[in-house]
Amino acid sequence: MVERNKETIQATKTSFEIVHTLQEIGPARLSEIAEELELAESTTHRHLQTLHDIRYVSRDGERYQLGLRFARLGRAAQTCDPAYEMTQRHVEVLAEETGERAQFVVEDHGLGIYLHVETGSQAVRVGFGVGRQIHLHSSSVGKAILAHYPHERVDEILDQWGLPAHAANTITDREALYEELETVRDRGVAFNREEHVDGLNGTAVPVKRDGRAIGALAVAGPSHRLTSEWLDEEVPDMMLAAANELELNATYASDAGSRDHIVE
Amino acid sequence: MVERNKETIQATKTSFEIVHTLQEIGPARLSEIAEELELAESTTHRHLQTLHDIRYVSRDGERYQLGLRFARLGRAAQTCDPAYEMTQRHVEVLAEETGERAQFVVEDHGLGIYLHVETGSQAVRVGFGVGRQIHLHSSSVGKAILAHYPHERVDEILDQWGLPAHAANTITDREALYEELETVRDRGVAFNREEHVDGLNGTAVPVKRDGRAIGALAVAGPSHRLTSEWLDEEVPDMMLAAANELELNATYASDAGSRDHIVE
DNA sequence: GGTATGCGTTCCGCTATGCGGAACTGAAAG
DNA sequence: CTTTCAGTTCCGCATAGCGGAACGCATACC
Fold first, then answer.
1. Which residue has the higher pLDDT, A29 or B129?
2. Does A68 contact B113 at a Cβ distance shorter than 8 Å?
């Protein structure tokens, strides 16, 4: 390698690569990780030792795994988001009222991240928990958010992540997505008809602040249960009411919000 | 610096130092971080750029903050723990039955980490959320866990973290703690009488597997409400029942547990 | 009980890599 | 128009991180 590598630190990236490997394959031995990442064992060892030192990985005899210290960082990252606290209750209520899975999602680095997930009484228990990432083009929440973003930002995001197909109905054409976003903007509600997972529908409304979306509320469920009337009328009404209340809150509370800073 | 630095990577540590700074002081500007850590601005810049690249920090104009990608890692770390799933329900039930705050805590690197926290109807809402770390010597959960650890491990932990005083009643003498642990082992229940926070009591029972504690269930509340009879008799009974069920589960399910591996 | 195998750790020498200082940019304030 | 300040880029140097090889240390195999 000759050129100066875009002003970025390799060691840090490698350490996080190791963390990702542990996240994906779970508790693993040193040699597995080294092989997976095509690193020398000595190098892998040094990284793991460092991460262990600072308590971000634990080892149980011969297996390494993610340290629970990450739980703290994860929480800190979530509570940093101004929308975190005020949306929690609304998601709970939505889950209860609809009986389906309710969620609140925000955008970060061009992806959607689930901040809250509540499963109603009859909700499907698929693995879309808190912290999960989702492409914005193929989900109701994503479209709700993108519809209220400036054009150039939407382009940036689509450039970065593309429009990969996740299910039969995924919108993979950029122009088609623009049109869809237009519609979403007009209606104030975004739908997902089996665009992300076959058999799964969703409905989302943006939560705005100063005209820009700071996140989106959504309800998701199996397509056979989220039928047209229910989905087109009742659910959106509930969600719009919630979003409305939130928006009042958001602009009202403004920066007076008491960030519950966890000390130490 | 002359000696080879204990076989550990400085760059990774610095990156995490920056992450910690962001965790503590919240959204911050580059210069603040650089000053806080006494790093050159160019160095700080390089680290932040790297962390931004891999989506672990976001920037909002001129302020950097923790990226939400950490939420995913945090969840992954939690669900890695075999006790995570099976204890959730029990904590919920305990919170409901007692009306107080119920918790499940495990040990990692010699500290207690809250895996579940549920606040009952009248529970105090202090900042001890999921992911929070706590010293083992000054909490009911900690004592419950330590009481069922091998002696040498307890020593190691005390060597590493000491016995700092957090409240008026904190046990700061090693011998006194050993005696206390003896008592806990006999009774099967650990108490915390304003040892961690003044005015806050707690009761904990260990959840064991093969004789070793894999975590502890606890109920905590203001000392005026958690009075002697209630605390000494009823609460422990409820918790022991829960722990018992869990232990059967733990040894029964053994390694047959279906780890709900979040794919992608 | 000796040998083989496999995994983890330590050692070592090389150079790429991360470092701080200084120079540059660009915006906001005076 | 100048000054100031925060952030970014440039640059040369020394060190810190790298891979390969050697070393321990088990457990398995014969």
1. A29
2. yes
